């Protein structure tokens, strides 16, 4: 089944607020995400004028979280594009396979956490947008 922008989900991560005002704790376990996490990585010290991502995946699913600061995620399913801003550490953006993504407009001090369903496999990446459109038209 071909994935579209309708398959992207914003997932609320459980947040536990300390009753004594000592801050919050968020937990990702059990069925918070719709897949098993196989790899974790994070982006930081990204210049505000830089773009990250610029690819799609054949099989990999991922969720992005703004642990600190903010950034925009440009999402494209081959037919339409939309931008979602992330700026809360208790909100994950679930991106299924077959969706092109670009990350941009990083604020100073932004940290992007990625929780992914697969270990790194270069053959799972579609890095050329024309190849992505061909993949989506199959």
From TrEMBL:
This is dTDP-4-dehydrorhamnose 3,5-epimerase-like enzyme. It comes from the Bacteria. SUPFAM superfamilies: RmlC-like cupins. Transmembrane segments: none annotated. Residues 7-136 form the Sugar 3,4-ketoisomerase QdtA cupin domain.
